[in-house]
């Protein structure tokens, strides 16, 4: 299982790295549209009880169409990011108030179904705009989340005692999150020095990087909420050893809009 996970991880890293650095932004947008919005919406529909057959196959089309229209007409980024911030504020409220066995989401399945479009499309649009600014920012964000996971794993294994969200993800600890934040704090400082031109900009870069790490945890927990509601261990089986696409991009879905908003803030010189 571990060997399979490592092999899949290496392949994913090569494919993602090639797409980030070798594709021009228009092609990156199309490839990521299918990978993130298309596959993500399909798994989301499957998890939230969409009927098998044609309904399940057609489920990704609304999100993909809206995403493509945003790209086609060059829709302003800022309103999309504001929508995402509001949506994730609601999701965080849902996470803090989640209780197993309430049957809320089973009795009202539209709640989780409707969030698919509102989560996947803004995250994808943010990544496309990040890539258009500089492909290195996409790499940085992905590496930031990866380092947060690695730091959280080792810190949690060594020092973890206090459960972060036992009803959603029993393996996560507060100590692990702190470990992830410590590792990514160092990484964000390095990148701030490299990519910004002033102390205020560097400070903002670090702050939004840390906020992105924090909310990436919420993204992970939210997909865990959906899986727990349907009794699934993974979002899918597409990626051997890793589960599904949503299992790999859950943190990115939450972090991408917020981090992109931070870069836009820096660009507009609002500090």
Q: Would you kindly provide a written description of the structure presented here, covering whatever features stand out?
A:
The chain is mainly alpha-helical and 271 residues long. It has one domain. Helix content is 78%, strand content 3%. It has a two-stranded antiparallel sheet. Helix 2 packs antiparallel against helix 4. It is globular and about 50 Å long.
| Count of DSSP-assigned helices | 11
Give the integer mean of the pLDDT values: 90
Decide which structural class fits the backbone: mainly alpha
Q: What is the strand tally?
A: 2
Largest sheet: 2 strands, antiparallel
DSSP helix fraction: over 70%
Overall 3D form:
globular
Strand order of the largest sheet: 1-2
SSE arrangement, N to C = HHHHHHHHEEHHH
Cα(first) to Cα(last) distance is 48 Å
Poorly predicted runs: none
State Rg: 18 Å
GO molecular function: phosphatidate cytidylyltransferase activity
Membrane topology: Multi-pass membrane protein
EC number: 2.7.7.41
Main location: membrane
Defining traits:
single chain, 271 residues, mainly alpha, two-stranded antiparallel ribbon, 3% strand, globular, lipid metabolism, Phosphatidate cytidylyltransferase, transmembrane
Provide the fold topology:
Blueprint: H1 2-22, H2 25-47, H3 54-58, H4 61-72, H5 77-96, H6 104-107, H7 110-133, H8 135-159, E1 163-165, E2 169-173, H9 174-195, H10 199-230, H11 245-268
Helix pairs in contact: 2-4, 2-7, 4-7, 5-7, 5-11, 7-8, 7-11, 8-9, 8-10, 9-10, 10-11
EC number: 2.7.7.41
GO molecular function: phosphatidate cytidylyltransferase activity
Catalytic activity: a 1,2-diacyl-sn-glycero-3-phosphate + CTP + H(+) = a CDP-1,2-diacyl-sn-glycerol + diphosphate
């Amino acid at each position: 299982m571990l060997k399979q996970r490592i092999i899949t991880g290496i392949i994913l890293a090569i494919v993602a790295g090639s797409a980030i650095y070798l594709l021009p932004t228009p092609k990156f947008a199309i490839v990521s549209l299918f990978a993130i919005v298309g596959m993500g919406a399909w798994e989301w529909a499957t998890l939230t009880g969409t009927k098998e057959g044609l309904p399940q196959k057609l489920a990704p089309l609304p999100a993909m169409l809206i995403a493509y229209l945003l790209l086609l007409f060059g829709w302003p980024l800022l309103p999309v990011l504001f929508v995402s911030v509001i949506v994730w504020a609601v999701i965080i409220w849902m996470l803090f108030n989640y209780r197993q066995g309430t049957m809320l989401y089973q009795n009202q399945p539209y709640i989780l179904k409707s969030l698919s479009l509102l989560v996947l499309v803004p995250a994808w649009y943010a990544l496309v705009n990040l890539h258009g600014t500089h492909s290195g920012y996409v790499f940085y964000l992905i590496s930031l989340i990866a380092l947060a996971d690695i730091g959280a794993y080792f810190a949690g294994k060594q020092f973890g005692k206090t459960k972060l969200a036992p009803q959603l993800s029993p393996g996560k600890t507060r100590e692990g999150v702190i470990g992830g934040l410590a590792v990514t704090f160092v990484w964000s400082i390095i990148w701030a020095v490299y990519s910004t031109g002033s102390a205020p900009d560097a400070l903002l870069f670090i702050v939004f990087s840390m906020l992105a790490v924090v909310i990436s945890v919420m993204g992970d927990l939210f997909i865990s909420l959906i899986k727990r509601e349907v009794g699934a261990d993974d979002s899918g089986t597409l990626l051997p050893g890793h589960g599904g696409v949503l299992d790999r991009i859950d943190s990115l879905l939450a972090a991408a809009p917020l981090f992109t908003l931070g870069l836009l803030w820096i660009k507009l010189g609002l500090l």
